[in-house]
């Protein structure tokens, strides 16, 4: 339910386009149904592909016979790992797109077919005969760590993946001493589960390889440039020969960060047939085969002194990668940053162990490990406050991060309004103290900490912009950045319109073809508005300089007197001296020695890759906030109903309040859903509830009143002061609800989702 | 027949990519049939349009009844000028896309239909009932100039168009005195005819207007940016809302310079239906309705002194515009430049009168008036030489233009190898003097003079380039320029590859979408390689600077020591110090504070718009050359057979000899065809031979041996010394053949085409 939002402005500056609630610039196209997603791509002569997956979670492949599949009318290609040469996928290069020798999960791709119709492809896939020798599987990561566990990758001689993430401020002996001497300690085991990102648009690709050796991929990837690079390696062709086109993207939430087997498989089928090949998941396939959120087992303890100051925090996390390593296990990095950085904690230790099992391999999802670890951290904060007899809000405020501080890992916190966020959350939820929410009701709190100025996990975290102005004043911004549906293109347009003093409809954002647009690392880590926005702002400033120089000549006034506003440039000392924006552009272009206005910039945030000791300031800004949840627990059924969520955000200046509120609503709903509803139920590594009838997603009826508060302290590094916001809505929600459930019932839930049976 | 080419190099510099015969970079796509032309554009939900044209060359429209057309199944829209509001077209704004009140030619568009199929559209067009009151027409431009002639546009009170072009070096009295005192004078009336450009790809458009008010036009225009501007004015929408996409273009030859009625009509039908509408001419429609080459009646006299020095030239030209003014009459400007500028003539007068008739309106075509006027000029040169008893080649050499001179109109000739070209032509054809070619054979010569460094007929003659380098060393050149099929994209790629020392396959040229590419005035006047090439070269130099700075750091050497060659940058003083091009790019990108490489430039040639007195240096370079034709005239049938053409060109440095030779071959074939075969036969303003069975185009069998000679004197203003070449092959051919026919038969042919009956 929409309750509007509150903005707490910590600055006096106001703008004309920035900070206004404007409709998304791509909204019109979507509203009229004219937006085209990957499943809408129809190319002449197109084939349809289907994949045959393993019958067993762990087995040797003895024989594949595709003969009957070839005989199905309309079949144009059948491929297996035995007849196409594809490189391995992933950072660890542990993942062949088409499996040979053995299968390691029921998702494993054994063969694929391209046919004239979907039906023929389905029929052919079913006609493929595969003979397996089933092997014992391992589905519990703690079991998998045991020396006698069945090996998922025999050649490794262990299921423990060579991806240990460890950071500590001091040695174990010292840390143990801190815990022993502390006034209060809480220690527990938490467990978070698998869920599916469930974007409206399912995973899909249309691959088209032509006779000149050029491959065009229509894809809903989040990172077209890394995708192109990876795919080139897998296919053994130069990435320069791959054109990546992104139609409109119907949500992604982290699911589109990697190259997945369907991509090289579709490409291989197109290379065989020289025809376009479409491979788009059905909803059932999406639930079964799209990478789910990284599950985790978290052993955590936290210590505080008598005055309520945090002394130490320790987290040992086990991450089940599934059968191969995709982006999921890298959630450990975010877990580490939050373990070491949320609140001021002098002594910290974080350790993550990544384990292979015969489960589905995992991906990253909105928040990227942060909802998972915050579930543990913020329940411990709640328990510690109780143990110390302190108000949980007060306890958090005492320990809250402060501006201009550095976390143990070297993250440089500049702006930080966490204390104000906590106060606002308490005020808006009507907090009066523990047990005061009414019968069967409870209120819980949780704070969050996340990157808000990019995240340098690749050698460049930059984004390029090419900005041009046509002779009629239309500004085209070709950005490297991908809008996943979040409204980042609109934010970019607002930034450019503001800087050039033109109306929003005079700005067009283009980013569908990675062979044309400048480079960008991809849309993740809430970075689009910050990084692409800064890039667009730099470009607008560069164009403005050209325009100002010409306007100064034209109006015979020094450039510093010029104001760009209302599609006009005028002299602030004499507003009658003015020239329309579009006329100015034509004056610059249509004269001897004139020029069109096209500028190019590249913005790479001033950040550092983390070193081998996990030290380094990986983001140019950080975001903070707090949520309060009001819940009611039915005393009979133990059914948890969330009545209200207050979500308070320090994301710097809010560029488009309506869109920002939408992001928060979406985030909260996703967090709520993760906490109470969504769960991929696995049996022997197979999702047994792969349909929206069994896999619960909240409707509007399950979604509570959401009150959004923005504490708007402009960040000096952000475009017009903005920081990231895309993910944070969902980060504290599981913890806030769990704390509210505790307030209502006295029962701590350490395992997600929260179900009546655990109460 | 292919005889190879000769290159006469007037420079010692040699390059690695430039100057080499390389296949066209778009050749592969065309060879495998994967290139998509406008007729290949298929959009979901597309409609097909047909136009109803006037039954009479001149008539009042009394009544249009579209009722029956609406009843044809599948019809989705029927429009007439009475129910859609469209602005007028053309520089004189004399042309409504859909006619109301009256029709002025049989091409006049009266109504149009969009339907689910072409057949339904045809049926519906035939079902439209139009009642006319026929009016007396005028089809002869000299008749049309008479005061009592029927008026094509009554409101003008005259058929003489307000477009007089006149230039003279002195007053008529003085000029007449010069002619009177001259040792030799020739004076005559010449007449040149209508022909069709006959590109493989017919005129066509797919228009798609969407619910957001955005119009996409897939078109084979030559000038997408002017097209967008004009079309916006006609449709009454901002050009910024129009996206112009150019699929591959199957030739144009000047036919695509304007917006034509089919463009706004298709747009109007799409605006009515909100569906894509395709309107592509059949070959019959192309022959009937595409703008033909500008015909002309030329009254010319030339005078020389006893030593064979030209004294004066005077041309009075009548140009039949047809019913409306499109680009055709502007051929007068080129005729003027050649009349005043070809050979050194101290006294010149040129005057063109443009006249409305009820004939088809005219367009411009390869050479743009130059083949027409050269037909007169070079026959008079031949006749004058004879009158003076001089060798025609010697006579031409005496009068030939020289480098670093200025023509009476202020055209600044820099490089000029005309004398060498004439000598080579004589040598290669085996010239031994008049009447020495053998029985029934003759040899004729003609020289030419044309712009070769752009032609400033618009407020900017510029072209923008955006050049980017991907992380794998692929250079993408987004050019404003359109490749009409001539190979200009390949020339651009060669220029960039040369400058960056990379192989040609590492360069990709992109120019299909005018909403992305930088501005360019359009491809005409042989300007693409010169102007877009210079623009691309500037961009490559800018990128090279960035690369050199980084390489200098990397290799610890001063930038001036660096050589870019073989996809490597190395230190010329120590070639072991080197770095691969692609690796260098990654070094620049993937570091802290790194950047992608994307540069933007705009090149506008240093030229002048001509002033009201037709003075001004409109091109940055001029091209010269000469042709010699060897013909045989059957003494019985008088059929003229051209046995050999020697075509000698001073186009500066030749960037791609094979492609350049192809351009010359095409030009010569087109000139030959214009001279002997092609003729649109008009009866009462209607083309009566609108089919390739009746409209003669030469096949390989009719095409003579063509010997191409390039006199390669690099021009300092051109990219690597290149000047324009696209049009010149066809300019001197009619005159050369006519002079050869005279040498063979003693008969001067003053009217084109040369037919047996005129001999």
Automatic annotation (TrEMBL), chains A, B:
One of its GO terms (molecular function) is iron ion binding. Keywords: Molybdenum, Oxidoreductase. Pfam families: Ald_Xan_dh_C, MoCoBD_1, MoCoBD_2. SUPFAM superfamilies: CO dehydrogenase molybdoprotein N-domain-like, Molybdenum cofactor-binding domain. Residues 32-136 form the Aldehyde oxidase/xanthine dehydrogenase a/b hammerhead domain. This is Xanthine dehydrogenase family protein molybdopterin-binding subunit. It comes from the Archaea. The lineage of its organism: Archaea, Nitrososphaerota, Candidatus Caldarchaeales, Candidatus Caldarchaeaceae, Candidatus Caldarchaeum. PANTHER family: ALDEHYDE OXIDASE 1-RELATED, XANTHINE DEHYDROGENASE. SMART domains: Ald_Xan_dh_C (SM01008). Signal peptide: none annotated. The keyword Oxidoreductase applies.
């Amino acid at each position: 339910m929409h309750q509007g939002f509150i903005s707490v402005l910590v600055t006096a500056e106001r703008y004309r386009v920035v900070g206004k609630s404007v409709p998304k610039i791509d909204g019109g196209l979507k509203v009229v149904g004219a937006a085209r997603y990957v499943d809408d791509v129809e190319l002449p002569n197109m084939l349809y592909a289907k994949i045959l997956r393993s019958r067993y979670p762990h087995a040797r492949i003895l024989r594949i016979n595709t003969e009957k599949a070839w005989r199905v009318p309309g079949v144009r290609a059948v491929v297996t790992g035995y007849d196409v040469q594809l490189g391995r996928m992933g950072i660890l290069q542990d993942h062949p797109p088409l499996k040979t020798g053995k299968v390691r999960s029921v998702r494993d791709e054994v063969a694929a077919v391209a046919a004239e119709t979907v039906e023929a492809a389905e029929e052919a896939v079913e006609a493929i005969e595969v003979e397996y020798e089933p092997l014992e599987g391992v589905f519990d990561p703690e079991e998998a760590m045991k020396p006698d566990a069945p090996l998922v990758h025999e050649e490794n001689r262990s299921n423990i993946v060579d991806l240990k993430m460890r950071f500590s401020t001091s040695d174990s002996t010292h840390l143990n001493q801190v815990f022993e001497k502390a006034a209060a300690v809480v220690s527990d085991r938490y467990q978070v589960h698998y869920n599916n990102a469930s974007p409206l648009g399912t995973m899909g690709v249309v691959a088209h390889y032509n006779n000149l050796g050029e491959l065009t991929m229509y894809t809903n990837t989040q990172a077209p440039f890394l995708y192109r690079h990876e795919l080139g390696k897998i296919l053994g062709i130069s990435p320069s020969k791959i054109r990546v086109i992104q139609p409109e993207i119907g949500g992604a939430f982290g699911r589109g960060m990697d190259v997945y087997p369907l991509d090289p498989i579709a490409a291989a089928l197109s290379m065989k047939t020289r025809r376009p090949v479409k491979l788009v998941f059905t909803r059932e396939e999406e639930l079964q085969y799209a990478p789910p959120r990284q599950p985790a087992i978290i052993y955590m303890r936290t210590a505080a002194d008598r005055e309520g100051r945090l002394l130490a925090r320790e987290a040992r996390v086990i991450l089940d990668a599934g059968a191969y390593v995709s982006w999921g296990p890298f959630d450990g990095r975010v877990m580490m940053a939050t373990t070491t950085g949320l609140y001021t904690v002098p002594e910290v230790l974080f350790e993550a162990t990544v384990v292979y099992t015969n489960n589905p391999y995992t991906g990253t999802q909105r928040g990227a490990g942060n909802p998972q670890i915050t579930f543990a951290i913020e329940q411990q904060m709640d328990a510690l406050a109780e143990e110390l007899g302190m108000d949980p809000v007060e306890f958090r405020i005492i320990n809250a991060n402060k501006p201009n501080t550095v976390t143990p890992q070297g993250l440089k916190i500049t702006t930080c309004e966490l204390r104000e966020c906590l106060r606002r959350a308490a005020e808006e939820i009507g907090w009066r103290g523990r047990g005061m929410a009414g019968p069967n009701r409870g209120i819980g709190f949780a704070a969050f900490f996340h990157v808000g100025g990019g995240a340098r996990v690749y050698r460049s975290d930059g984004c390029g912009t090419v900005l041009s102005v046509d002779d009629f004043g239309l500004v085209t911004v070709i950005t490297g950045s991908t809008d996943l549906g979040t409204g980042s293109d609109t934010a970019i347009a607002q930034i450019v319109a503001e800087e050039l003093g033109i109306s929003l409809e005079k700005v067009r954002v283009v980013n569908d073809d990675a062979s044309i647009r400048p480079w960008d690392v991809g849309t993740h880590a809430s970075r689009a508005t910050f990084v692409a926005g800064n890039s667009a702002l730099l470009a607008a400033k560069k164009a403005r300089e050209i325009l100002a120089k010409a306007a100064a000549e034209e109006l015979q006034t020094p450039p510093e007197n010029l104001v760009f506003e209302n599609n006009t440039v005028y002299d602030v000392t004499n507003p009658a001296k003015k020239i329309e924006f579009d006329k100015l552009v034509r004056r610059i272009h249509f004269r001897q020695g004139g020029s069109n206005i096209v500028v190019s910039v590249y913005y790479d945030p001033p950040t550092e890759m983390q070193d081998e000791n996990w030290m380094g300031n990986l983001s140019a800004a950080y975001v903070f906030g707090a949520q309060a949840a009001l819940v009611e627990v039915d005393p009979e059924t133990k059914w948890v109903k969330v009545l209200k969520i207050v979500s308070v955000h320090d994301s710097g200046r809010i560029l488009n309040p309506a869109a920002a509120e939408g992001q928060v609503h979406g985030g909260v709903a996703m967090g709520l859903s993760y906490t109470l509803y969504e769960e991929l139920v696995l049996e022997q590594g197979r999702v047994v509830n792969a349909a929206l009838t069994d896999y619960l997603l909240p409707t509007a009826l399950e979604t509570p009143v959401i009150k959004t508060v923005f504490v708007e302290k402009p960040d000096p590094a952000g475009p017009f002061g903005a920081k990231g916001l895309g993910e944070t809505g969902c980060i504290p929600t599981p913890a806030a609800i769990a704390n509210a459930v505790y307030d209502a019932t006295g029962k701590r839930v350490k395992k997600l989702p929260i179900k009546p049976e655990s109460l």
